[in-house]
Amino acid sequence: MRIAQVAPLFVRVPPVRYGGTERVISALTEELVRRGHDVTLFAAGTSKTEAWLVPSSAKPLWELNTDRAMAYQVSQADQVVKRSDRFDIIHWHSGFAHWLVPSRLRAPSVTTLHCRLDGDPIGRLFMDHPREPVVSISDAQRRPVASLGSRWVATVYNGLDLASTYRLGSGEGGYLAFVGRSSPEKGLATAIRVAIRCRIPIKIAARLEQADIAYHRTEVAPLLGHPLVEWLGEATEPEKVQLLGGARALLMPVDWDEPFGLAFVEALAAGTPVVTRPLGALPEIMRDGEHALFGFNEDELAEACNRIGEIDRAECRRWAVTRFSTTRMADDYEAAYERVLRPAIAGDGEKGIAATGTSSA
């Protein structure tokens, strides 16, 4: 099959440091190539892949520090449109811009949206473009727009090569780990307060983005001077693997409806249980009392941190590497591609593509 993978341009594929979506795109692209598909990746120019690479910017947009991100995104969509007759299917991971040009595409396409889908602008987009085939990364992600008539192809959980990247860690470091962004929705300030309350050290591998500077300065920075708190900044992949394997638990009390939560399954792959709030997809990808302990407020989160020894680390790893592997993700996407490509004369037409399908994970 001739497949186009269209990645966001803000981070290279795969990322050196922060960039969960880009790591998923890389894992999928390389696995599809390994299976013999003819794959073209549209991505930032410094990306590394065994597929054919079409660079849509010289560098990732975060490195260019440009105020013309939209121009790059439109240019990328135009690149795909002009080459669309070369593909059997186009798989978009880059947002909504291509929904404006469906009549110009000369190949079927499907969109995986890696963001939250609540809020008025997104709801209006789904209502205005009801024929666009869409894959959700969790069942929870699609709930805000589930009734708007979109053509849901499937739910496909994110996957990575967790079995070889992570080993079963002992947690002998005795600390709590936070891996993500310093942002209110990821709950970093809450995590620090809970760790201090439990008298457990916390190590923080976090990216600070421009939009979150005010939050970081007012809520997080005043807490970083505590002797139990260690700020590591952004971690490379090997640094993150080591950090998670040595952690007693991943403490990331999100304060939003998480659409998936890649850091959580990475922690589980290292045998590291999770303490968080049961929001969004998290109860869908982890079981309370088996892989995670959930709490809503700081009292409940602190209690969970003190009970984390109840969780079987080996079961955490087994769950993650079985359900969130690259192989399973590629299987599910190949099935999704076939559903999009299924001709109407096969007997189900629009009904076939509109039916919801949950990942086999």
How many E strands? 13
Shape: globular
Q: Kindly report how far apart the N and C termini lie.
A: 24 Å
Q: Which percent bin holds the helix content?
A: 25-40%
Low-confidence stretches: 344-357
What gyration radius follows from the Cα positions, in whole Å? 21 Å
CATH topology assignment of the largest domain: Rossmann fold
Number of helices: 15
Q: What is the level-2 CATH architecture name of the largest domain?
A: 3-Layer(aba) Sandwich
Described by strand count, sense and barrel closure, the largest sheet is: 7 strands, parallel
Q: What would you call the structural class?
A: alpha/beta
Q: What order do the SSEs take from the amino end to the carboxyl end, as H and E?
A: EHEEHHEEHEHEHEHEHEHEHEHEHHHH
Strand content: 15-25%
CATH classification class of the largest domain: Alpha Beta
CATH superfamily of the largest domain: Glycogen Phosphorylase B
Mean pLDDT: 92
